[in-house]
Amino acid sequence: MTNHRWPVDTLTLIRPGVYQHGPDAVVEVLRCGLWVRNAVEPVDAEPHSLPVDEANEMVLYDSGDPQTASALRELAQDIARQVAADNTVPLQVTGIHSAARRNEPEPFGDIRPTVRDAADRTGIATARIGSERHEPSRPETARAAPLTVSEHLRALWGEQYDSCVAFAAELVRRHPALRGDQSSGDPVVELAVLRLHLLRDGHLPILLSEAGAGHTAAQELGRLLASGLHRLPAYAGPVTLRTELDQSDLARYRTGGTVTASNWFAGTMTGWSGRSGNTDLVILSSGGRRTALLEAGDPDVVMFTPGVRFAPLAVEAGARNAVFLQELGPSEVATADPDACRRAVRQLSRALTDWRRDEGFEVVRTGMLSAFFQPPFPGTTVRPTADGAGASRDLNSAAPTNG
Predict the structure, then answer these.
(1) With contact defined as beta carbons under 8 Å apart, do 93 and 128 qualify?
(2) Which residues in the chain show pLDDT less than 50?
(3) Which value, in Å, is the radius of gyration of the alpha carbons in the chain?
(4) Which of 54, 76, 78, 162 has the most CB atoms at less than 10 Å from its CB?
(5) Which residue from 394, 12, 402 is spatially nearest to 203, judged by alpha carbons?
(6) Alpha carbon 191 to chain centroid distance?
(7) In 3D, which of 170, 155, 147 has the Cα closest to residue 204?
């Protein structure tokens, strides 16, 4: 049953494996087949543990609520008839009441297909679909357009995404400059998606194969995130993050090759006091974006997108190493002017000295250690996308924790 795309390929995806079927019912894909149940999430997940029955494919329905059991049974039978024509093994429709099964478990038994309903003493009603073929009544109209990324995130995250949309709408109302060019995209959607991305620490899985005009879902997500970030205020000045680097890592920075961010990453404007790690990366930002307006983390965070390049300026070894980088513009090349490099290093060194002095006074940075606080490495490349925001694996990868 789980190999059949019909009927679920015409239904709206709520979350992985769960599809909306009308206003009050969902169809969930299980190992043993399909489960037709109420839209309210079940208290337990007993049906998920049911084994695969090689002799029968199953369509389960929730028989626990007398007010909905009949309607769910009819829906399950209808779904079973629709897919019966594609089956080469008997198809079994089974009502399941988790509480009854938990108190008095019984096997389904080896019952061959019939066309009648039966009920056993545990309250588990079973119906069998006959061997005659039933052609599914597939809709004749064209399939609806794919969900947009915004619609998909709303289906997956519901109230959390809606709250991000409401927050972004109020933010744009209070700060009209965030609208930017009137011909650009929707600032509310872009900022809402970015806020959810930050609140979920970069974990926004996109399961659709496509969304938007000609873009894959991951590419469209990347475009929304990059556009939303570029609406936020730029920060020019030193930022830092603390991490753990071995000697081979430090050697890569010493080679002087351009450093390219392969993932979203962030630094802070006020140091890394009290955090573990053997190396401080200190970056002279020119186009990093402050995320404080989104209220989705510490207020001193500066964020960089995949593809941003940095020029290594110096590496200082010590009890705690220091690596100094300077952000490069889209078409900027690393300067060969030694005086300019020395000025940049002095500026970054002063900031690092101040941050470490705070640490000497036992100032400790509070807040969560986000997965965004990871270093960009020399020699890394970003797979190009239509929007230039980095590959989909970069948008959704789980970054290693530093320190």
Answers:
(1) yes
(2) 1-5, 99-143, 207-215, 381-403
(3) 28
(4) 76
(5) 394
(6) 15
(7) 155
